Amino acid sequence: MTGMDAILNGGLQGFLVVALLLFAIGLATVLLRRTLLMQFMGVELMLNAANVALLAFARYRGGDAQATVFYLFIIAVAACEAAIGLALVIGLYRHRGTTDSDRAASLKQ
Amino acid sequence: MFITFAFVTLLGALGMLLQKNVIVAGLCMVATFFGVAGLFLLLANPVAAALQIIVYSGAIMVLVLFVIMMLNSHEEETAQTARPVQRWVSVVLVAVLALGAVKLVLSSAGLKTLAVKGQPMPGAMTLQQVGTTLFAEHLLGFEVAGLLLLAAMIGAVALTKRNL
Known about the structure:
The complex is a heterodimer.
Chain A: H1 3-9, H2 12-32, H3 36-60, H4 65-96
Helix pairs in contact in A: 1-2, 2-3, 3-4
Chain B: H1 2-18, H2 22-42, H3 46-70, H4 84-107, H5 109-117, H6 127-137, H7 139-160
């Protein structure tokens, strides 16, 4: 199962291509959208792409449970990031009445 | 089956990128998370698939949607300054990065042999395997993760509370 066949039927390369495209779309979201919430969702997307690649490699190297444990840790960090990031967005909205990252370019008012 | 889940994942992500309304973009994100959970099932890892649905679709996206509804701006604000050059440069950079990486993956000989042989797996991942590995080899990491979650919880409360 190589090349195009691997992509269509879900070989290791197929999963990696999906992970790479997911990462690229997440990066594009962070770079192109100005709303902080959208940029935040782009970061979550990139974290997910890393998870897909990690678990795909684990599966094709014999299904080690270590990868799932690290996936658990990544999820814990992502949840922390979600809580703190959203709290910061709410704080910014209270101070400036905006969630546009361009309008929050300086820390001072 | 793989191609279906891959399409759900990538179409959800593309919808999120292109959608103007933030709530609809969040719902596209939920579709992406379900697609990724399907991919995890195909990787013989039902534990990760269940965690993906519970934590991402269940907890993180609900949090995001709540915050979106608390702020009463569902549309992207008009740009303060138009930055056409930066936007086009970032589009080109992302496209070059994605195409280059995909080309690299498809031409790599090591990945090809791994994909052909794909070391044998005794069976689908079980919660018992994950739990044994977690508590036997990564106990410190587990405790640190718990402490990190506690710190994040206190931090979120402190940041959102108006006057502490």
